[in-house]
Amino acid sequence: MTTANTLQLTGEMIIGGEAVLGTAGDVRAVDPATGAALEPAFGLATEAQTELAATLASAAFDAYRATAPEDRARFLERAADNIEALGDELVERAVAETGLPEARIRGERARTTGQLRLFAAVLREGSWQGARIDPPLPDRQPTPRADIRQRKVPLGPVLVFGASNFPLAFSTAGGDTASALAAGCPVIVKAHNAHPGTSILVGCAVAQAAEESGLPRGTFSVILGRGNSVGQTLAAHPAIKAVAFTGSRAGGLALAATAAARREPIPVYAEMSSTNPVVLLPGALASGAHDVAAGFVGSLTQHAGQYCTNPGLTFVPEGAAGDAFVTSAAAELAAQRGQTMLTAGISAAYTAGSERLEGEAGVDVVARGTNGDGPNTPAPLLAATSPEAFGANPRLAEEVFGSAGLLVRYADTEQLTRLLEGLEGQLTATVQLDASDAADLAAARGLLPVLERKVGRILLNGWPTGVEVGHAMVHGGPFPATSDSRTTSVGSLAVERFLRPVAYQNVPEALLPEAIRDANPLGIPRRIDGKLQLPAPAEVTPPHAEITPPHAEITPPHAEVTQPNAEITPPNAEVTQPNAEITPEDPAA
């Protein structure tokens, strides 16, 4: 097989670790900054090739799920090493295919390899196995208790859809792939047609790591296909046991419908749509309206606003402090120039969405930036409306993917609470407050229960366009932010999506999996008779640093915004339909 160090893009995809040329047509990436088509053309998978990928993944499952956690950890680390070994070739290709700045791509590469190494550390630590032991109670009355033990096992092959706007961190070797592979599930990646070269370069690095690790042939594949045919075919295939998707609401719902209609329904973890409300409390603005406005505009416009955590909806108090914020935000936004968007289709969808927003009854334009110099660089937009108009028109709460924000003025905390109660589920909610202001603290205390019902992550005095990769992060939320609010697509908890519990009753020690044997040979944390027991020092696997990707190379465009991970958030705009493989008419295709 071609290795990551010698790879030349030939238009082939990767099925079961081997380069395969699709023969169902082809697709070329287009540089959105110039409009130029990029070489080579990539062949698209036929039905037979799609079937082969699924068959190989199914055949590999038993052998791959049986690999030791340490072996899977080393595989993930090899994949990270191989991605880094691609060097500037990967960076240059990703910049050309997405129009994103080089610093952003380098930061995203660091995040991607850091995620892989994080899940290697998770595998070694062992609590992901969920080991529990209820010892037998033979003398219990009126009935004895059997010996019952539990651990978690992988679901099976997982279908991962690459996102349009995160060519590395939410694509071929992104968090969905890393967590599924860590769980012991083979992965088929449906690469996004907007960045096929980037996807195949990374895919080759992962496939090489699988080969170096001696893993079964079908452990990992990356395929390309036109429209929704390949993605829907795989989602319906009996070999696939779970789907991970980052994209539009329409795309996520289409996949969920396909999965639910199967003879054996499967989970779909779809991240879809969010406007990420921001609440500005009076005290925060009284002590720094200009700074808050500068931070807000920096978050709204960073990298053309192409984040699912973009702050698209902001609640501003009436009164002098709110007026000062609006004035400062208008001046900040008017000074912004349009930045290159990911594709011509996404740019056109943003333009249509922003025009729709400003044309709604009761909406006024507060400020508009200017178009950039090149193609696909539409101007940022800031609009405003009244709470009455907002409450009467659900279209005003819809996401516009890009640098478009809507301000809603509110009279008091009671009205603000009603407005928040009317929102759909969101990925994030942000509250800007003055922690020394008793009124702000009281208002925030009352809002927190509402926000807990509505969102997956609550921020105070920050901005949502930054998602740390760690153990406590939640990147998810109630519908339509995601299709399953009980989990996350970022952080170590993401592995739980691809596991299920199995209980073992009265199973002899010789037949038990290592994780739940009496001697605890893996040296992992376990819950014995309801009490958490940590491994003795001698049992602990030698420590491996949990590597969090460096962010020093990331330079946010606004110095006022302190966003160590600001580039790392996958946008999901229903308007833009970034996952063209689900919705054929999508202009982002």
From TrEMBL:
Domain of life from the UniProt record: Bacteria
Listed InterPro entries: Ald_DH/histidinol_DH, Ald_DH_C, Ald_DH_N, Aldehyde_DH_dom, Aldehyde_DH_Superfamily, ALDH_KGSADH
SUPFAM superfamilies per the UniProt record, alphabetical: ALDH-like
Keyword DNA-binding listed: no
Molecular-function annotations in GO: oxidoreductase activity, acting on the aldehyde or oxo group of donors, NAD or NADP as acceptor
CDD domains, sorted: ALDH_KGSADH (cd07129)
Gene3D superfamilies: Aldehyde Dehydrogenase, Chain A, domain 1, Aldehyde Dehydrogenase, Chain A, domain 2
Any Pfam family: Aldedh
Swiss-Prot/TrEMBL keywords: Oxidoreductase
Every Aldehyde dehydrogenase domain range: 27-440
Start and end residues of each stretch annotated as Disordered: 536-589
The keyword Oxidoreductase is assigned to this record: yes
PANTHER family reported in the protein's UniProt record: ALDEHYDE DEHYDROGENASE-RELATED, SUCCINATE-SEMIALDEHYDE DEHYDROGENASE, MITOCHONDRIAL
Name of the protein this chain belongs to: Aldehyde dehydrogenase (NADP(+))
